[in-house]
Amino acid sequence: LRAIGGEELMQRVIDSGSILKGNAIYLPGMSDPMMQPDTTEEDSGLPQVFVRWSVLRSNLNDLLAPAVDIQFNAGSDICGYEVAGDGSLNILSESGAAIAST
To answer: Could you tell me the pTM of the whole model?
Structure first.
């Protein structure tokens, strides 16, 4: 994101997630977990962040122009799209049939 000027988005994602500080590994027969610290931030300068998909999607959606239309739950067999004569997009299934139109 830094390469494309996305510092603000990057910071929003970091602020809305949980920064990973390490992993706890529970092995059978061990009474205490084995702790393994996360070194991502030391290695790259950026933390490793867990973010719920809905929160990430919301952050990305905020960057889109209001005229952009996103289709959700259009189907699981989406294969591509085509531009219709009026400029709208038809979302196509594997068979080539239009599933939805924007």
So the answer is: 0.56
